[in-house]
Amino acid sequence: MNGLNKGIRKVELAAKWDPSPVGEPSTDLDIVAATYPADDPFGKPAYVVHFDSRSPDGTIYLNRDSKDGKGFGWDEVMTLELDRLDRRFVRVVVGVLIQQRGGHKTFAGVANPALRMREGYTVLAEDQFGEVLGSTAATVGEFVRDDSGEWTFHPGIHGFDTDPATFAGVMGNPEES
Asked: Which residues contact 108 (CB under 8 A, 6 or more apart)?
């Protein structure tokens, strides 16, 4: 790091949505983060963090996991401690997907979906998935480490129409979005 610029250090990604109407299957959104090494920053992820998992070194973890959107405030929350992430990783792509247990569901069928990404009190991104309503999953941004070791954030919502397992493998490939 040079000078007083520390780059992005610790980020919170949060998603929320309203519960499904009575009598309909529950809606379950999940936050996903994929890490990419310096020798293949656009290839297969080194590892993916999602529900029921955390990064091997504990730097990316899910704080809150909802399977139905019930509750107050943000239903899913993931923390990314980028300043502690091993130097061999130079890219982290984050996204949100819809579990497809109740049949094919896109963001258009989710009641009031929203996301917020912030570092401390600084909001890096906010969105309601309006540009990807026909998608079942979306990347919501990426963090890139430069040669000095500082992380920068590149916002952008890119929709995918795929199942959760496939999304985890292709979310970092720019040609797939």
From this structure: 133, 134
Give which of 10, 25, 12, 46 is closest to 115, Cα–Cα: 12
- Max CA-CA distance within the chain? 57
The two three-digit tokens of residue 122, written as one number: 């600084």
DSSP string, 54-112: B-TTSSEEEEE--SS--SSS-SEEEEEEGGGS-TTEEEEEEEEEE--TTS---GGGSSS
Q: What is the pTM of this model?
A: 0.92
Burial degree of 53 (CB within 10 A; 0-12, 13-18, 19+): middle
Question: Measured between alpha carbons, how far is 69 from 48 in angstroms, rounded to an integer?
Answer: 23
Structure tokens at 147: 């040669």
Burial of 156 (0-12, 13-18, 19+ CB in 10 A): middle
Contact between 89 and 8 under an 8 Å Cβ cutoff? The reply is no
Per-residue pLDDT tens digits for 39-52: 999 999 999 999 87
Question: Is 173's pLDDT higher than 60?
Answer: yes
